[in-house]
Write a structure and sequence with these properties.
8-stranded mixed sheet, 15 helices, 8-stranded parallel sheet
Length: about 450
């Protein structure tokens, strides 16, 4: 097959391509750095002709043009698989909604549950000599999206890194309906945030001392996991592996420090496995055409059965708060969705199934309210409306700057006692009183 000729046959403009979208359609915008740009602008320009267009996507790194059209809430609905600041604003404006999920299930959801996608459009790397467009650092669930879409439109970006994988990391030109050559913008940048705080460093130290040589790492996003990554890079640890949902800059830094070689991994030996990635340019440069990095669908990376095969698996993720029963909320503030479930529960479950594995949920012991007052992240019960991201039987290790506790094997009063022991000292007496009222406190000399 002459792929170059086929490419020219399918090549069109963004304005022409978006004519495939009709009122009432479901349009998939891909994922993270793969969210379309030229196609998005072209579709926004014709939205006055359309009504009730439903979009799916997630981990937005810039505000789509379709969000900026007049009277947006009457024209579109944005359905997000994960929430960030941009998606939160869409929810507040009345046209954004979150779809709760275990991220590992998303490819199957597309194939079996969400129904047909009318039009899929997303950014890809340039076609290779075999006719494949790499999804870049966004394998995640995009192959499944392509399989269930009536029309697939790819927007080629020369700056999109070509991420190697093995399966479901690319789409072939024979499965693409239209090709648009985009504006070749730089990849969306996601920094590590501000400098680590004393609390971040205290929590990171408690976790790093639990990591053995040869461990396999999963890091969530946020200040504490990033600080753990920096501390690992400066440590004496060796022969580490990577198997993660999101590939972040910390892994590049740990690799540069000579700590990662994947030699002890029981599967995918020597390869750093991820479902998607976002960070600074050094990350995109590192993953580009790098055989050490393996881009794979999230149904593989996050499957507890996959994770369980990796010995000494270490999972590190953030939380918003936790109650004295051990229920973890990692995604809402009351009824307000501020993040998403993502794969946190996947890795909590999978790490515990791993031989020698541990999962760590970490957070600061307190937070500051809008009025400047300080409140405890360890609460008697979760705030009204808060969701449970990790059910109480699932949580393994919980860490604050005041210590770390293993919650496995504990009765309700033991769990309450353990959690209160790592709460901020100013709140411990009140938490004891609250636990007593809820009949989960056993009076003992530890009081």
């Amino acid at each position: 097959m002459d792929y170059a000729a086929l490419y020219q046959q399918k090549l069109t403009t963004a304005d022409e391509a978006v004519k495939a979208v009709k009122s009432g359609d479901w349009v998939d915008y891909g994922w993270c750095t793969g969210t379309p740009i030229a196609l998005d602008k072209a579709l926004a320009a014709r939205m006055d002709e359309l009504t009730d267009v439903n979009f799916r996507g997630g981990v937005l790194m810039w505000t789509p043009a379709v969000f900026q059209i007049p009277d947006v809430a009457s024209k579109i609905t944005w359905n997000s698989w994960h929430m960030g600041g941009i998606e939160r604003k869409a929810c507040t404006a009345g046209f954004g909604f979150y779809g709760a999920l275990r991220y590992s299930e998303l490819p199957r959801w597309y194939r079996e549950n969400v129904g047909r996608v009318n039009v899929a459009m997303f950014q890809v790397a340039p076609m290779d000599e075999h006719g494949y467009f790499s999804f870049g650092p966004n394998a995640s669930h995009l192959r499944a999206v392509c399989e269930v879409s009536d029309v697939v439109i790819v927007e080629v970006n020369k700056n999109m890194p070509r991420c190697l994988g093995g399966f479901e990391d690319a789409v072939h030109i024979s499965q693409v309906d239209m090709i648009v050559e985009g504006e070749n913008p730089a990849m969306g940048q996601l920094g590590a945030g501000g400098a680590p705080t004393d609390v971040d460093r205290a929590v990171a130290k408690l976790i790093v001392e639990e990591i053995p040589n040869g461990a396999c790492l999963q890091l969530g996003i946020g200040g504490m996991p990033n600080t753990v990554g920096s501390m690992i890079a400066d440590s004496d640890l060796k022969d580490l592996g990577v198997h993660t949902e999101m590939y972040v800059d910390a892994f590049v830094d740990i690799t540069a420090a000579g700590k990662i070689n994947g030699s002890k991994k029981t599967i995918d030996k020597g390869r750093q496995v991820f479902a998607f990635g976002a960070g600074t340019q050094k990350l995109y440069d590192f993953v580009n055409n790098n055989p050490e990095c393996m881009s794979a669908p999230v149904s593989y990376t996050n499957d507890a059965r996959t994770i369980a095969q990796l010995d000494n698996f270490i999972s590190i993720n953030n939380a918003v708060d936790i109650d004295l029963f051990g229920q973890v909320n990692a995604e809402t503030s009351g009824v307000k969705q501020i993040s998403g479930a993502g794969g946190q529960l996947d890795f909590v479950l999978g790490a515990y199934l791993s031989k020698g594995g541990k999962s760590f949920i970490c957070c600061s012991s307190t937070f500051k309210n809008k009025d400047g007052s300080i409140a405890s992240r360890i609460r008697p019960t979760l705030e009204h409306g808060s969701v449970v991201t990790d059910a109480r039987p699932c949580v393994h290790w919980f860490v604050t700057e005041y210590g770390k506790v293993c919650l496995k094997g504990l009765s309700s009063w033991q769990r309450a006692e353990a959690l209160i022991s790592v709460a901020h000292p100013d709140f411990r007496e009140q938490l004891i009183a609250d636990a007593d009222k809820m009949h989960i406190w056993k009076r003992s000399n530890k009081r």
